Amino acid sequence: MSEPKTKKNDASVLDFLNAVEHDQRREDSLELLKIMEEVTGEKGVMWGPSIVGFGSYHYVYASGREGDWMQTGFSPRKQNLTVYIMSGFSRYDDLMSRLGPHKTGKSCLYLKKLSDVDESVLRELIAASCDHLKTTYGS
What we know:
The protein is of the alpha+beta class and about 140 residues long. The protein has a single domain, classed as Aspartate Aminotransferase, domain 1 (Alpha-Beta Complex). Helix content is about 35%, strand content about 20%. The protein is built from 4 helices and 8 strands; from the N terminus they run H-H-E-E-E-E-E-E-H-E-E-H. The strands form 2 sheets. A 6-stranded antiparallel β-sheet has the order 1-2-5-6-8-7. A hairpin with a 3-residue loop joins strand 1 and strand 2. The radius of gyration is 15 Å and the shape is globular.
């Protein structure tokens, strides 16, 4: 079995975020760092070269593959601010419908600008996703 490429590391979150070229994306990333630290109670840490993660959990698939992954996180990509949110909890659809303009992919929430979405709903979404992971996988 191969090892996951994206792992927690000791790189500086602030150095990474301050180096984001796009002004709006950099400002949004620094704000999202504060929001996620407040909601999760965890300090942001780098996962791989371009993801800021918060908390972690250990997973084991039916195939026997296992590993560790962040509870939530984000990455300031060129096109969007990508937020890593686990779906599958009871309030997911309701929160997503009230969030504001966004797109989704597998456990990814894509935002053009942080100011486009309702911050209180985003906070609820992050908290509910982390709670769901804690319930599913333990702390």
